[in-house]
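Tokens as discussed.
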């Protein structure tokens, strides 16, 4: 695997790093009540790795149930390596051959092939070109459809509101990124705490019933 691909995968993994935690520790009811506490929408984060400048326009979204988190990354590498990638991260338990369907509004669906899977998530990828970016800027909604292990499609709707500002605008300051990460960590910790509390209550009820 080449170095620039490794960098791209690393950034994509960071963008969707809470996917496994939220999917594992979040009940639908709690997610529905608290999902607004998690930072929403499109944002840009940039960093430098050796001789390569990397910018990542990303969005972390959850399904209406709160059970599934999808990470979207538009990666641009400049410097010693010049490359643009569009990546989507979804939880595991997906059928690999169908890939992920990408559709803007009611347009034609484009297939994204899976390129890498970790223990808690899989990444699909396609070249990032001007046509794709333009369609995002003009569009209202993005639909990403993966297929689960029961051969059922799981479409995820993503609002494109705010995309143009994030893509064309400056990246977040380091302090803003740290604040965003803190809020995500607090969101995960709070839901894990509530989940553990609810589980203990259920266990206590089961013991009392015996």
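Sequence:
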């Amino acid at each position: 695997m080449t170095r620039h691909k490794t960098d791209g995968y690393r950034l994509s993994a960071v963008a969707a790093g809470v996917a496994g935690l939220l999917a594992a520790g979040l009940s639908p009811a709690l997610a529905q009540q608290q999902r607004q506490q998690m930072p929403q929408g499109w944002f840009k984060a940039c960093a430098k790795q050796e001789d390569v400048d990397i910018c990542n326009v990303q969005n972390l979204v959850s399904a209406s149930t709160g059970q599934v988190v999808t990470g979207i990354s538009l990666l641009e590498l400049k410097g010693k390596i010049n490359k643009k990638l569009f990546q989507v991260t979804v939880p595991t338990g997906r059928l690999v051959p169908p890939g992920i369907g990408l559709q803007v509004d009611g347009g034609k669906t484009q297939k994204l092939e899976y390129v890498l899977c970790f223990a808690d998530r899989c990444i699909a990828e396609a070249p990032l070109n001007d046509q794709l970016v333009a369609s995002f800027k003009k569009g209202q909604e993005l639909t990403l459809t993966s297929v689960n292990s029961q051969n059922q499609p799981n479409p995820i709707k993503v609002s494109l509101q705010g995309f143009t500002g994030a893509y064309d605008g400056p990246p977040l300051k380091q302090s803003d990124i740290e604040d965003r990460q803190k809020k995500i960590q607090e969101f995960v910790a709070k839901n894990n705490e509530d989940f553990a509390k609810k589980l203990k209550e259920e266990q206590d009820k089961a013991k009392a019933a015996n």
